Amino acid sequence: MHAIRSVDTSIELILRKELWRRGHRYRKNYKQIAGCPDIVFIGKKVAVFCDSEFWHGRNWEERKTRIKSNRDYWIPKIERNIQRDVEVNLKLMIDGWIVLRFWESEIKSNVSECADRIEKCLNNR
User: Is residue 15 part of a domain?
Assistant: First the structure.
């Protein structure tokens, strides 16, 4: 687990490069708000998270049946990550933030659509 990156992951870089190319400026891994979002637009109060599918439990009910080794460790760990994501979303929304979460496959397959959704939120603020 030492090699698992928490900042500047490949999916973050893909999305950040697209946003930068479009002329958007942001903070990355902003620690002053709950959850330390991957991309933050402070003035507009928009927080963006780039979630990997394993660590954040995409299709968790199906995926957890495929975990064969060390189930007593991995299942509670991933379920706590899922619970923490919900808690962070709620905390940020209560504080007036718009929270956007993108799955790894969404970013990799269609980064332009992800950036469009972020721009739409920014323009509505």
Answer: no
Return contacts of 29-38, CB within 8 angstroms, 24+ apart: 33/92, 33/95, 33/97, 34/88, 34/91, 34/92, 34/95, 35/84, 35/85, 35/88, 35/89, 35/91, 35/92, 37/92, 37/99, 38/7, 38/12
Check whether 108 has a pLDDT greater than 90: yes
Strands (E), 15-97: 27-28, 39-41, 46-51
41-87: pLDDT as tens digits: 999 999 999 999 988 989 998 888 888 899 999 999 999 999 999 99
Give the total number of structural domains in the chain: 1
Altogether, the residues listed in the chain come to a count of 125
In angstroms, the Cα distances linking 6 to 12, 69, 82, 93 are: 10, 23, 16, 23
Please report whether residue 113 resides in a domain. no
